[in-house]
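Give me the fold.
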Amino acid sequence: MNEKIKQLLAQAHLEVENIKDTNKIAEKFAELIIKECLKEINDMIVDESEQLYPNNKQTTEYVNERLMDAHDNIVDLFGIE
């Protein structure tokens, strides 16, 4: 199992009070995975100072808009803030 997944599973166990409630642990684990994915998407958004295509600002803006759309779709799909 991937080390990051092991870390998130351990974190889920720590954050759920009743460690015998496997449904709550699974829910927390899924939430933590989704939050990690959202963080990765946010980290991909390009700052204007580091343009993807220096000669075409519109392309960079388009890429950022699509990344934010993906972020928002994931939040809506899973109800995660």
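The helical segments are 3-15, 22-44, 57-78.
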